[in-house]
Amino acid sequence: MRIHNLYEDDDGQSHFRDIEVEWVEEGPGGQFSERLPATGIIFRKVPPTYELDWHSAPRRQYIINLDAGVQITASDGESRIIAAGEVILVEDISGKGHLSKAIDSQIRHCIFVPVD
Q: Which 8-state DSSP code applies to residue 80?
């Protein structure tokens, strides 16, 4: 299982990398990762016209798209579509940040899971 990760370097530029979930336990219900820290859960409804100029993430958090995707562009120019059902860990909390844009003119429901 892949998690997209948007992070910033020492110069404040944002970049993507992939994190592979490590399975540490297996049982009748499937495979499990280790338990990761989280401080809450936030539900969000994003309009189909959503397009946000350069901004940093407000906190380190996982974002889980439930029913639509989003296009995110890192400050290094790489652009990814984070589709419905995918997870991104955003960690670019200072620096130039990233661009975010709705795709397919759809409302997007997502879950934020802060980790700090």
A: E
- Residues 47 and 12: their CA atoms lie apart, in Å, by 29
CATH code, 88? 2.60.120.10
CB 38 within 8 A of CB 114: yes
Task: Report the number of distinct structural domains present in the chain.
Answer: 1
54-106 per-position pLDDT tens digit? 999 999 999 999 999 999 999 999 999 999 999 999 999 999 999 999 998 99
Q: Strand locations in 9-102, DSSP E? A: 14-20, 25-27, 30-32, 42-46, 51-55, 61-65, 70-74, 79-82, 87-90, 98-102
Give the structural domain span for 32: 2-114
pLDDT digit string, tens, across residues 33-52: 999 999 999 999 999 999 99
Q: Which two tokens stand for residue 52?
A: 């946000």
